Amino acid sequence: MDIFLAITGTICIITGVLGSLLPVLPGPPISYAGILLLHFSSYAQYDTRFLILFAALTAVVAVLDYVIPVWGTKKFGGSKYGTWGAAIGVVIGLFFGPLGIIVGPFLGAVIGEILYGKKSNEAFRAGFGSFVGFVTGTLMKIVLSIVLAFHFFKALGGAIF
Questions:
Q1: CA 65, CA 62: separation in Å to the nearest integer?
Q2: What is the mean pLDDT of each successive set of 10 residues along the chain, which is 161 residues long?
Q3: Those residues with Cβ within 8 angstroms of residue 124's Cβ, 6 or more apart along the chain or in another chain
Q4: Residue 25 C-alpha from the chain's centroid
Q5: Spatial separation of the C-alpha atoms in residues 150 and 1, rounded to whole Å
Q6: CB contact set of 37 (below 8 Å; sequence gap of 6+)
């Protein structure tokens, strides 16, 4: 059973890191599942504080991944129309794969700003803010998934070797 948990956990860790780069997969939650699988094996026993801390970080990063593009729109001068457009773009973009998740918030913010009556250069600036937010969210996911992978392989390597 321990070998099954370790192999399944390894698959989760690798998928989680890849999922941080591919917007279709929720990277950090999958990586955290890998940590839990290893924890339930005899190879590693993580501290309760460690598990709670990383569960909280995983939840926060998962939520921020959807919120930050909207915040970026607002930070770069977007109005409520641009902010709502970016939020709607995130949701619609989910149905169009990785490209949709990247382009959706950008186009939503631009369209929202144009509907609000802003000039195209102002609308594109708000869209750029949405893109900056997307990149920031992606970086957060990658960092968290890599940190989880580090702890996973450190514990697994210490148990095996």
A1: 5
A2: 95 95 85 97 94 98 87 83 83 83 86 90 87 87 97 88 68
A3: 110
A4: 9
A5: 23
A6: 5, 6, 8, 9, 12
